[in-house]
Amino acid sequence: xxxxxxxxxxxxxxxxxxxxxxxxxxxxxxxxxxxxxxxxxxxxxxxxxxxxxxxxxxxxxxxxxxxxxxxxxxxxxxxxxxxxxxxxxxxxxxxxxxxxxxxxxxxxxxxxxxxxxxxxxxxxxxxxxxxxxxxxxxxxxxxxxxxxxxxxxxxxxxxxxxxxxxxxxxxxxxxxxxxxxxxxxxxxxxxxxxxxxxxxxxxxxxxxxxxxxxxxxxxxxxxxxxxxxxxxxxxxxxxxxxxxxxxxxxxxxxxxxxxxxxxxxxxxxxxxxxxxxxxxxxxxxxxxxxxxxxxxxxxxxxxxxxxxxxxxxxxxxxxxxxxxxxx
Length: 327
Fold this sequence. Notes:
The protein is α/β, with parallel strands linked by helices. The chain has a single domain (13-326), classed as TIM Barrel, CATH 3.20.20. It is built from 10 helices and 10 strands. The strands form 2 sheets. The chain has an 8-stranded mixed beta sheet. Helix 2 (61-68) runs antiparallel to helix 3 (74-81).
């Protein structure tokens, strides 16, 4: 479910930024498929994500795709490129030796534009348990990588989704105890940064709320802001909020964020590149209960894996991206 571990190609950063600016101008002049895709998040007194806007990565896969988009596909792809999305940190692309500088640069750029960067940390040992996004670091390497990320985060506010699927998959993987220990250590290493951390809360069509709450409590959800739901999945926001509020009630009122990047039409029961799906609500903070924000965590347009006509997990899939917009 993760992005591809190495970028397929790069273009000059100044050129990328120009593309994003041009895309935004195009939307202002010619209309928009998504409503208020870059509007400021609503402000709330106690929501750490409620005071600003979310960061648009000038080197996202959508931005790179927009550089070569033409004809009828140009507008939709540019719209995706102009919408704030999470930045996935994977060790295959950003190893410990370089990840501090990379994260520090993103955080500084976000601060300069008065936005909040969203990161997904995705490098835990036995990542995805040998499935489409198999990989990750060794038990010895992972703590050092997390510390390097924490150093780059500094004290500026950023949102961090810590290891999607790590806790929800742990029972199937047979490594609940080690996953809990690894998660607790990662929380410790991120604790002095400005990160607003959300653990893996699965989704509404997976484990019962009580089961999710139990493993979240064991992993240390009381020491972070809360948990994330629906990452890389398609369930409706209403279903996710209802499920997450049940989990919250069982975890001492933990807060949560919902991945709405691809849930506009809800789920058809498939998780790997299902047809007929659509982009969902754009990223914005929430003041509803324990719901901190809707975020585009999984990048719309990046494949879930080699299924239903898609390329390997994380690779840009232009046909899939256009389907999400048109549906």
